[in-house]
Amino acid sequence: MSKRILITGGAGFIGSNFVHHWCENHEGRVVVLDILGYAGNEANVSDLASQDRFRLVKGDICDAPLVAKLLEAEKIDTVVHFAAESHVDRSILGPAAFVQTNVVGTFTLLEAFRNRWNSEGQPSDYRFLHVSTDEVYGSLEADDPPFTETTPYAPNSPYSASKAGSDHLARAYFHTYGMPTLITNCSNNYGPYQFPEKLIPLMCLNILLGKSLPVYGDGQNVRDWLHVSDHCAAIDVVLHQANPGDVYNIGGNNQVKNLDIVHSLCDLMSELASDLPKSPRDLITFVTDRPGHDRRYAMDISNIQKELGWSPAYNFEKGLRQTVEWYLNNREWWQALLSEEYKGYYDNLYGNRP
Q: In this structure, are residues 236 and 250 in contact, taking their beta carbons and an 8 Å threshold?
């Protein structure tokens, strides 16, 4: 039986990749709800606009009447919730938007879905999957074991704190109301359609533009990198196989230091791009670390491997090369994003850092 799915934030980076994954692998109605803010881009899903089963709705997940009406009109039985403010640096500059979207917005969606689920007699096949982050667990030291699904929450930024709040709400709706929620916590994603404020696309674009490559602190911060295609496949598996109330960590088994990524990107760009204005490694600039910068993240993904049979298909070398090639081959896509607002944000973030 095909699902009637609402994908929030489906014009953003991970969301749009999931929309494409879903449309390629499943039948049924697909509705995207996205506010189309700075990181939500209609162009990311424009190739699907001609499909009768696809609908893009511009709207805010905090708009309770809109959300309720959309769930009812489209007879939605499944929600995959990506919509979030998601950049730590932006949360430091302006935390209010993160609390509003990530906490209030998630609450609004949960309430609307609970009302619909109840009105339909609490069907057993309904699902609400909340997509979250490894950052809710805090920071690891070099020798600490990876995060598991039972690691205590210890968020260190306004972003991760707001995501922790939304996780707790999703969990509470299962335990209090029996609502069929699922939670996934993922590591750092990379791949096509990622907004250029994040590390990998930022470095690619700055190399092409001959701009400095800002590296926070000593560049030794470690992240576990997950290709967005692997993430989408994992969410699909969780949605179809997990039991209501389950929580799964999703990671790529690729722990890499930030500085090593920058060096790899410099080398890949030198190899693959023929029109670089400057030698990439000469552009590396160490800047003052951001406040509360978590030192290391690592994910234990043994549960999803053992219980659901999912494992990442991409190793980091293969995925990073593919990602660099995508940004080189889709210059019109990212050039359209370099607005005055983005340039102002970039200058505000990096312009005053020695």
A: no
Q: Which residues contact 258 (CB under 8 A, 6 or more apart)?
A: 199, 215, 216, 219, 220, 221, 222, 223
Q: Phi, psi (5° rounding) for residue 96?
A: -60, -40
pLDDT on residue 352: 63
- Placement of tokens 């994603």 in the chain: 189
What is the C-alpha to C-alpha distance for residues 79 and 330, in angstroms, rounded to an integer?
30
CA distance 206 to 204: 6
Residue 222's DSSP bridge partners are 257, 296
Q: What does the alpha-carbon distance between residue 172 and residue 247 come to, in Å, rounded to a whole number? A: 13
Per residue in 7-17, pLDDT (tens digit) is: 999 999 999 99
What pTM was estimated for this model as a whole? 0.95
Q: Is pLDDT above 80 for 345?
A: no
H helix intervals, 147-198: 158-177
Residue length, the chain? Answer: 354
Residue ranges per domain, the chain?
5-194+225-253+294-315
Beta bridge partners of 81: 8, 130
Residue 219 φ/ψ, nearest 5 degrees: 75, 10
Which amino acid would we find at residue 145?
A: P
Q: How many CB atoms lie under 10 A from the CB of residue 50?
A: 7
pLDDT of amino acid 350: 74
- Between the CA of residue 2 and those of 76, 142, 181, 303, what are the distances in Å? 11, 45, 19, 27
Strands 181-186 and 247-250: parallel
Contact (CB, 8 A) for 221 and 344: no
Catalytic residue numbers read: 134-135, 159
Question: Is residue 83 within 8 Å of 105, Cβ to Cβ?
Answer: yes
5-194+225-253+294-315 placed in CATH 3.40.50.720: yes
